[in-house]
Design goal:
By secondary structure, this protein is α+β, with helices and mostly antiparallel strands. It is about 45% helix and about 20% strand. The N and C termini lie far apart (about 75 Å). This is YrbL family protein.
Length: about 250
């Protein structure tokens, strides 16, 4: 394990990093040095708000805050929840350490994958591709129960930062932990944090239902369109030849 307190213990070069995903605030890379791991690096190209642009000192302070505070708070969550036991280690992406990169310090985490070796699909992609079945529905309910009951501080959890690990048949939370606000009220007040997580869990469940219905309706509409087209062209769906009109 890399010791995230010792930033010079290991490092990666820009040539060994390959961009595999990009979010609103971070980029995710793979590295030849750490093939089974991913490196999450905070973006540095965010634009300052109009108010901050008037004062250079505010721009610098906001830049420093964005580059350091969210990362520190996320690491704090990873280290704090070690005592929560098996469920948290099952549903939360495994944190390995902090590693220096040419683009700043990055989080080194274990990669969740599909059976074909590719990176795991997000929950949104799983539903869209029609792979959401009864087993995954049951797994989602278990995941959300853990999510609400856990002491983990979560702020921005949605269908794009929950992935399905096909190897171990489980859902994994890969992002959205740690309070990103200037005053971390959710970290200070557990009741407020749990209330927020209940709201997030309900929203996730409803979004899965909406996306599932949308995906199902699209498939049915496509099948209906195919049927109508075949009838219009006089093609028998039974044997694929033209209807015998006589």
């Amino acid at each position: 394990m890399l010791d995230f307190k010792n930033k010079n213990k290991d490092s990666v070069t820009i040539n060994s990093m390959k961009l595999v995903a990009e979010g609103q605030s971070r980029k995710v890379y793979t590295s030849f040095e750490h093939k089974n791991l991913l490196i999450k690096v905070q973006k540095n190209d965010f634009s300052a708000r109009r108010f901050f642009q008037k004062w250079k000192i505010l721009v610098k302070l906001r830049t420093f805050y964005k580059q350091t505070v969210p990362l520190q708070r996320e690491i704090r969550e990873y280290t704090k929840i070690k005592s929560e036991g098996q469920l948290t280690s099952q549903y939360l992406q495994r944190f390995v350490g902090l590693i220096p990169t040419p683009q700043g310090n990055g989080l080194l985490v274990e990669a969740a994958r599909r059976k074909n070796g590719h990176l795991a699909l997000t929950l949104k992609e799983v539903v869209a591709e029609g792979h959401f079945d009864d087993k995954l529905h049951s797994e989602l309910r278990n995941f959300l129960r853990w999510f609400v009951a856990s002491k983990i501080v979560a702020t921005d959890v949605h269908l794009d930062n929950i992935v399905f690990d096909e190897i171990n048949n489980r859902l994994i939370l890969i992002d959205g932990i740690g309070d990103k606000t200037l005053i971390p009220l959710r970290a200070w007040f557990p009741a407020l944090n749990q209330m927020n997580k209940k709201r997030i869990a309900k929203n996730i469940y409803s979004q899965v239902a909406i996306n599932f219905m949308s995906s199902t309706m699209k498939k049915k509409a496509l099948m209906l369109l195919c049927f109508i087209s075949c009838v219009a062209l006089g093609i028998d769906l039974q044997d694929g030849v033209l209807f015998n009109w006589v």
